[in-house]
Every structure is written in structure tokens, then in C-alpha cells.
Amino acid sequence: MRLYRTPAGLARGEGDELALLDLPHLDVADLLSDGIEQARSARVHSRIPFHGAVLLPPVEVPGTVVIAGANYRDHVAEAGMPTPTAPVFITVQGMSASGPYDPIWLPAEAPSQVDYEAELAVVISRPGRDIPVRRVWDHVAGLIAVNDVSARDVQLAAMTDGVVTDIDGVRRGKSFPHFKPMGPAVVTVDETGTDLDLAIRTYVNGEVRQDSRTSQMIFSVPEIISHVSATTPLLPGDVVLTGTPGGVALASGGYLRSGDVVTVEIEGLGRLHNPVRTAPTVHA
User: Fold this and answer.
1) Residues 13 and 69 in one domain
2) What is the tens place of the pLDDT at every residue in 111-156?
3) β-strands 64-69, 44-49: how paired?
4) How many angstroms separate the CA atoms of 212 and 210, rounded?
5) How far is CA 255 from each of CA 81, 161, 208, 244, rounded to the nearest angstrom?
6) Residue 249 phi/psi, 5° resolution?
7) Residue 104 and residue 264 in contact, taking contact as beta carbons nearer than 8 Å
8) Same domain, yes or no, for 150 and 272?
9) In this structure, is residue 5 part of a structural domain?
10) What is the DSSP annotation of 183-222?
11) Which of 22, 32, 138, 148 is the most buried (most CB within 10 A)?
């Protein structure tokens, strides 16, 4: 099942159409309180063409966004970081997501080193603490594509030799407004399986920047979520990002500029297509 969020409510993807569901839930996180399976049998009150539909982030404000890093060997190498022996992550609370076609705004504070990061992410369906690896998929509502946009100058100022020395600085570099496009749908695992050998790519203005497969992750989705849950209780609607492959602008210097268009696509999950803009000036 592929669940979308539109201005008219939640919708199932059905071929070339979106089937708008007769459900009261505001987004997928809200639906999880009653169980995601309710969306499979919900009454369809109308249909709209998928092409041209306005799509919103399926989870508008995740309670917690978990951002795993250093999880592809080629990215670790290009960033000059040591290969981790356990999953590395930070958490950010109350960060609003952006939609799959919304602009990425270059923040006035740090506009010059804004980077793209294609990431497979997981939406949590059930509360969990100390989740065993073998039980992780029982806590997963579905998968989603995310662009973990980052202000590298802010992030790196909070690190020394690849080691975080100021966790709040790293969070700030990851959490400027409009830095987390996600979507276009939450895709349940029966659609993808759990082996997750999915192509993952980023294009900037049509040029391939990242090109890998999720099977190249150092730590698997179950390993990441199990490790995170040992110290961070996970709740329905939380979103767990699982790292990005090599090819980021941090290595090449090809940072995003106003007028660029960034496309992130993950096989079986869909595509994000976000124009880059300079953030509007706010006058007091």
C-alpha cells in the first residue's frame, strides 16, 4: 500500500489515480493511532489523477526525527571519517517536514554550503524501547524517501576530526526550515520486502550526483532501529533516516544554489523533486 497526503486528506495510490479516503486523520502519524491497516479498507469518497496532484509530506511534524550518519562506506571515505563500529545518530524533536515538491530554502544564516543527502527512511508504527533486531519490522509502518538537506558549514563547525563536539550545532545544521523534504508516499513493507536492495539516486539539474543501492549500508535498518531504541524510545510517527551514500557536495564542492532543482529517487518508493530558492528576508 502507498499512502499519500493531500489537501483533501489521506489517499491510497491506485494505478494512475489517488483514491481519497473517508478517514478523519490529519496525516499518516495520526492514522497510526488507529492502525495503518485501516487505510486498506477505508471507503473511497473520490478519485483524482496522480499527475499534477498537490502532495504534502505524509508526516507533517514527526515527534522525533532520527538522523543516522556514516552508514555507507563510500560516504565515510569521501568525508574522511572513521568507519563506525556501531550506528551513529542524532535526534531532532518537532522538526516540520516539507513536501515532495516544495522548495528547499537556502537559510540567510548559512546559504553557501547547503548539501543534499538522499536517504531511505522508516516511519515508526508502534512504540518501542530496546527493540530486538528480529522484531524491528513489527514496529515499522512503512518506508519513505527523504532528502536530509544540511548546512555543512554549520554542521562541521560543531565537529572536530569527524567527531561531534557540539551536538546542538549539528542539529542546527540539519534542521533549518524546509530542510527535510519527504515523500511522496509512505510505502508499506509488503510492497518492498525487507531485504531492501533498492537503487538510491540524487540528481541536481539532471546531473547524477549520488548513485548507489540501499544494500550498501554498513548497518541495516533493523540494526539501526534496534540500536537507536536502546537509548531513545520510539513512538508512532517518528521518522528514522538511515544515512546517505557517497557523492554529496561536501566532497565535490557542488553545493546547492538558488535556481537548482534537486531530485531524489529511491526504487519502489518514488521521487522528490525540489527547487532551490533563497529564503525570503524577514523584516522586523
Assistant:
1) no
2) 999 999 999 999 999 999 999 999 999 999 999 999 999 999 999 8
3) unpaired
4) 7
5) 20, 21, 14, 16
6) -70, -20
7) no
8) yes
9) yes
10) EEEEE-HHHH-SS---EEEEEETTEEEEEEEGGGBSS-HH
11) 148
Give the number of other Cβ atoms within 10 Å of residue 143's Cβ: 25
At residue 164 the predicted structure's pLDDT band, cuts being 50, 70 and 90, is confident
Among 19, 23, 27, which Cα is nearest to 49's? Answer: 19
pTM of the model: 0.96
Q: Which residues pair with 91 in a beta bridge?
A: 66
Which DSSP category does 42 fall into?
P
Distance between CA atoms of 250 and 144, rounded to whole angstroms?
24
Task: Give the pLDDT confidence of 186-200 residue by residue, as tens digits.
Answer: 999 999 999 999 999
On whether residue 283 sits in a domain, the answer given is no
Asked if residue 257 has pLDDT above 60, the reply is yes
Model confidence at 163: pLDDT above 80: no
CATH of the domain at 252: 3.90.850.10
Q: Please, which residues have CB within 8 angstroms of residue 284's CB and are 6 or more apart in sequence?
A: none
Would the pLDDT of 282 be above 70? Answer: no
Q: Which range marks the domain in which residue 130 is found?
A: 57-278
Which residue type sits at 170? V
The β-bridge relationship of strands 270-278 and 150-151 is unpaired
Single-letter code of the amino acid located at 15: G
